[in-house]
Automatic annotation (TrEMBL), chain A:
Region described as Disordered: 91-128
Comp. bias regions, Polar residues: 97-128
Highest taxon of the lineage: Bacteria
Protein name stated in the entry: DUF4124 domain-containing protein
From TrEMBL, chain B:
This protein's name: DUF2390 domain-containing protein
A Pfam family of this chain: DUF2390
InterPro entries noted in UniProt: CHP02444
Length: 128, 182
């Protein structure tokens, strides 16, 4: 008797299952009001607002140049603590030199635009 | 048709001190990559790097910054520094034909910024006569006030606030290092 009813119910259940496969379930309805969502969105600041966006570094580096008491010239990415120094705007080291670039280390101090120097740390620029 | 103020020569005092304490501070502070990056980011948002440096340097001296530039600074900036900057930006990099011209203009722009800072120092020296010795923490607080005075507009977003915090923190570290050095 029970087996007979199980077989009878199996066919409608199979039909419902086939219908679900083809037509699927409906989209879930919203369980929280929209106003609460917007309030949450205001509480959490945007990621772009927290992390400064990178700035373009298309400008030249600033290199500081000074002469010591023995007459020797120095180039560095920071000026000396005392004494007179000059600031030079120099094209970034990762840029290829143009044909006007002077690679002669002896006369380079006279031509600040291509002076060789040893940078101690990361590139420095004036946004120029 | 150009107005008289645009066509006339700028009157720069011949005894203007280019190697001012403000210029020396600018050079040492600019060597800090974090400070430099933050200052340049603010420059792209309409801030004046000269005003930023003035505000920070005055904070080190224990002085308040009014945020207003002198007429001489404004004229020099609008007629010399900014046109040079625009000219440099108008020339693309990595072009062997224009590389030397771009470099010459960039060096000229740097020299113009030096004169601008000298003019600013002259005006600051005239306006700020009293100063107090402050702790590093007080320097940071005063620096933030000075930067807010130098802001091009009063409304600030989170990113601007973060950049200001970077500048003042770098100044605090700078002040501590300077104190250890001397």
């Amino acid at each position: 008797m029970v087996m007979k009813w199980l077989i009878r119910l199996a066919f409608p259940a199979l039909g419902v299952l086939v219908m679900l496969i083809f037509f699927g379930l409906g989209d879930p309805t919203e369980t929280t009001p929209a106003a609460q969502d917007s309030a949450d969105a205001e509480e959490i600041p945007a990621f772009e607002g927290l992390v400064p966006s990178p700035i373009p570094t298309e400008g030249p580096e600033i290199v500081f140049k000074w002469q010591d008491s023995d007459g020797g010239w120095h180039y560095a990415d920071s000026p000396p603590e005392t004494g007179h120094w000059n600031a030079l705007a120099i094209e970034r080291a990762d840029q290829p030199n143009g044909p006007s670039g002077n690679s002669d280390p002896v006369s380079d101090w006279q031509s600040p635009y291509s002076a060789p120097f040893s940078m101690n740390s990361g590139p420095v620029n004036n946004g120029s | 048709m150009k107005s008289d103020s645009e066509s006339s020569e700028l009157k720069i005092p011949p005894d203007l001190c280019l190697d001012s304490p403000l210029w020396h501070f600018a050079g040492r502070y600019w060597s800090r990559s974090g400070a430099q990056t933050a200052a340049l980011a603010l420059q792209t948002r309409g801030w004046s790097v000269t005003d930023i440096l003035c505000g920070l340097w005055l904070a080190l001296q224990g002085c308040h910054f009014s945020g207003t530039d002198s007429v001489a600074v404004t004229a020099w900036r609008s007629r010399v520094t900014e046109p040079l900057r625009q000219a440099r930006k108008a020339i693309s990099k990595n072009n062997p034909v224009t590389d030397r011209a771009r470099n010459c203009i960039a060096q000229g722009e740097l020299e113009a910024e030096k004169v601008e800072l000298a003019l600013a120092y002259r005006a600051l020296n005239r306006d700020n006569r009293s100063s107090d010795s402050l702790s590093e923490h007080a320097v940071k607080t005063l620096a933030l006030e000075n930067l807010q005075a130098a802001a091009p507009e009063k409304a600030m977003d989170n990113e601007t606030g973060s950049l200001l915090d970077t500048l003042t923190t770098e100044l605090q570290i700078f002040a501590e290092e300077e104190q250890r050095t001397w």
